[in-house]
Amino acid sequence: MEAIFNSFSSRQIMQSETLEFFHYKDVTIDKIQPHSHNHYEFYFFLDGDTNYNVGNEKFHLKKGDFLIIKPGILHFPEVKFTDENNTYERFVIWASDTYINELSIRDDGILKVFSKISKKNLCHFRPDTKNKTIILNILENMTSEMDEKSVG
Description:
By secondary structure, the protein is of the alpha+beta class. The protein is built from 3 helices and 8 strands, in the order βββββββααβα. The protein starts with 18 loop residues before the first strand and ends with a helix. The mean pLDDT is about 85.
């Protein structure tokens, strides 16, 4: 499957009331200032020499790292482009509180996950190889679905 990439935009406000999905691959990017959102950000890192700041924590990202950033939390990447690492690739999903709550009606496990994340103040996850592959397959399927724009 050929990768489909979005053009990066510095927009930090959702245009949809539910969900927005992006697959970015940049070879240069302006410094991204610390910012926060009124929505959740799910961030799956693929490539680049990147540190990611969330609140008062900084994480040096490795391929497959996953971040869940709650609404209102300051965050930003620090990307270093070098001859060896000249790309910055990631999947980003924005989801509104309303949408998360609607999903939780169908599956209360979602609220359990968010509750656990909040209680333990977790945001950075490093899945094992098997789970990284599963997450990447889901994200690639989402990319295909978004590109097809088929009915339903």
